[in-house]
Write a structure and sequence with these properties.
Strand content: 15-25%
Largest sheet: 9 strands, mixed
Order of helices and strands: HEEEEHHEHEHEEHEH
Number of domains: 1
Structural class: alpha/beta
Number of helices: 7
Number of strands: 9
Helix content: 25-40%
Distance between the termini: 50 Å
CATH topology: Rossmann fold
Strand order of the largest sheet: 1-2-3-5-4-6-7-8-9
Shape: globular
CATH class: Alpha Beta
CATH architecture: 3-Layer(aba) Sandwich
């Protein structure tokens, strides 16, 4: 076995936690065929972040780590890692079995629950923030009721009209959506955020001025704001909220 392969499988020790040295698009799993793909595993994690990428409305084709929807989350993972104040937060991605949501099957939700269950086995009942884009934002909202979940940060989420919000009780739900998105609807997202106020601990939203669905325009703002939100939800007293107070009000949501 080569040294590179040994490092990829076992990780290397640095600052008291295991940093996975494999390419971000081919991360090892705690269990073969599992739904949890580790990026950073501290010895004693106090919290966790689970990233959920986008997909398609209908597809039974296998999800692969080199597909654009998955690759799109790489910069967010790196931004979150840099924004966290300590080195005791587990970072991971969820691995989908198929690319599609697939109607009532809601495959991405099933895979998200599997990943959260595996995370609980690995790290214990640590507070977890879900960071999801597009279909991953929908899966994050649906999985918000899982015992591990403290909060959801949704990026340009696919939240169709009438998306359920009862499962958000006791959770923090925050949404970022580009005002030029032509794939998913900022209006639907705003409606969902407002409806979730009746059950969630706190809900908020901000629009990315000029932002598109792929989060390429003003990408630095997307990455920095999302990472700061994750850090704030994990440490509300020690890390400031990057959004203005208007994001949590009853008037129109602000444009960043």
């Amino acid at each position: 076995m080569t040294r590179a392969r040994r490092d990829a499988e076992a990780g290397t020790r640095d600052r008291g936690h295991t940093v996975v040295q494999q390419d971000e698009t081919g991360l090892p799993s705690p269990a073969p065929g599992g739904a949890l793909l580790l990026r950073q595993r501290p010895d004693r994690p106090r919290a966790a972040v689970l990233l959920l990428h986008g997909g398609q409305e209908t597809s039974l084709r296998p999800a692969r780590p080199w597909q654009l929807a998955a690759l799109r989350m790489g910069p967010f993972l790196r931004a979150v890692s840099g924004a966290l104040p300590g080195d005791d937060v587990l970072l991971a991605r969820a691995r989908y079995r198929v690319r599609g949501w697939n109607g009532e099957r809601a495959d991405a939700v099933r895979d998200t629950h599997r990943a959260l269950d595996e995370l609980a086995e690995l790290a214990g009942p640590v507070p977890t923030v879900l960071l999801g884009h597009s279909m991953g934002g929908r899966a994050a909202l649906r999985a918000a009721g899982h015992p591990q979940v403290r909060g959801v940060v949704a990026l340009a989420p696919w939240w169709p009209p009438g998306e359920p919000v009862e499962q958000t009780a006791g959770r923090h739900i925050v949404c970022l959506h580009g005002d030029q998105d032509r794939v998913t609807s900022p209006t639907d997202s705003a409606d969902c955020v407002r409806r979730a106020r009746t059950t969630a601990t706190r809900t908020g939203m901000a629009l990315i001025g000029g932002g598109d669905h792929g989060m390429l325009r003003r990408h630095r703002l997307w990455h920095a704001t999302a990472a700061a939100l994750v850090a704030h939800l994990l440490d509300p007293t020690g890390t400031p909220d990057p959004l203005p107070e208007e994001s949590y009000g009853t008037a129109d949501f602000p444009v960043l």
